[in-house]
Amino acid sequence: MILCCGEALIDMVPEMSVSGDSCFAPKVGGAVFNTAVALGRMSSQVALFTGVSRDFFGNYLKQELENSKVNTEHLSYQNGPTTLAFVHLKNGRATYTFYNESAADTTLLPENSPSAEFQFKAIFFGGISLCTNPTASTMLDIMRKRSDHSVTVLDPNIRPSFISHEESYRNRLNEMIALSDILKVSDEDLNWLVPHHEDIHTQIQELVGPLKALVLITKGSDGAEAFHKGQKIAQVPSPQVDVKDTVGAGDTFNAGFLCSLMQNDALTKQYCRSPNLSVLNEALAYATKAASVTVSRKGANSPWHSEM
């Protein structure tokens, strides 16, 4: 089973009401939540560890997880409200304004984490859950304790406007990168992490150094690339589709990549250290295809296995 660790929230998405007025419609979301849902829909065994409010929106989130075949036994129920993210769309690209003070997914403590009796093939971390304590420190604690025994996957999915303490965030992220077997970043993430460089090889070398992590770079309509030991070893284009919006695209990519590796019995530490190129190209192609389905329809509406 894959365990996804991170935020679960409500995206308030701009829409037109039946009377023609502008409004915001609530949609389930959050980068890690979306990744878990996409994995469940692709018929992968997956569980989510997050803080869920006891409010109306918390029930809404839990229901969507169950509908998408995601194991919910590791949800931690909290008294705080559900995080709300108001989505702003411009030319199909999304930016966000967050309301999350004392929210359920930001208040997780180490004692809320899945107990040691539960073992996972892979553990996925990322999103805004890495920005706000105590949840951010709890995620690092889990990674420290479990990275020796599970494939560790990290997608920081950086939202600069959400980061209040940049130095501590960068320090925490650097330690998590050092513990990761698979690191996925967008080209925008990479430019924030390693600014003032135009050469992607230099950026990756500075980011991961001599580490043997498998690094994935997503580049929107330009497809995706994979790097290992600082060298590009695979590249795939993105399918051409009519883009409705990009909400959840990277999360679906993550799920598709992990799903494909699992189907090929390649979701292992050994594979990440010495990747087989045919399996890697297949995983990248599957991931970009899955993401293309998501961007072809509104919101983080990832494809089901039957649609792939």
Jot down its keywords.
308 residues, alpha/beta, 9 helices
Please outline what is shown here.
The protein is 34% helix and 24% strand. α1 packs across α7.
Summarize the structure in words.
The strands form three sheets. This protein has an eight-stranded mixed β-sheet with strand order 4-1-9-10-11-12-13-14, with helices on both faces. A four-stranded mixed β-sheet has the order 3-2-7-8. Strands 5-6 form a two-stranded parallel ribbon. The two termini are 21 Å apart. It is globular, with a radius of gyration of 18 Å. It has helices spanning 31-41, 56-67, 135-146, 166-179, 187-193, 200-208, 249-263, 269-273, 277-295; strands spanning 2-5, 9-16, 22-29, 46-49, 51-53, 76-78, 84-90, 93-99, 122-126, 151-155, 182-186, 214-218, 224-228, 231-236. The chain has nine helices and 14 strands. Helix content is 34%, strand content 24%. By secondary structure, the chain is an alpha/beta fold.
Secondary-structure blueprint of this entry?
Blueprint: E1 2-5, E2 9-16, E3 22-29, H1 31-41, E4 46-49, E5 51-53, H2 56-67, E6 76-78, E7 84-90, E8 93-99, E9 122-126, H3 135-146, E10 151-155, H4 166-179, E11 182-186, H5 187-193, H6 200-208, E12 214-218, E13 224-228, E14 231-236, H7 249-263, H8 269-273, H9 277-295
Parallel strand pairs: 1-4, 1-9, 2-7, 5-6, 9-10, 10-11, 11-12
Antiparallel strand pairs: 2-3, 7-8, 12-13, 13-14
Helix pairs in contact: 1-7, 3-4, 7-9
Q: Give me the count of strands.
A: 14
Low-confidence stretches: none
Q: Which strand order spans the largest sheet, edge to edge or round the barrel? A: 4-1-9-10-11-12-13-14
Order of helices and strands: EEEHEEHEEEEHEHEHHEEEHHH
The largest β sheet comes out as: 8 strands, mixed
Shape: globular
Counting helices, strands and paired strands, the structural category is alpha/beta
Q: Determine the N-to-C terminus distance.
A: 21 Å
Q: How much helicity do the residues have?
A: 25-40%
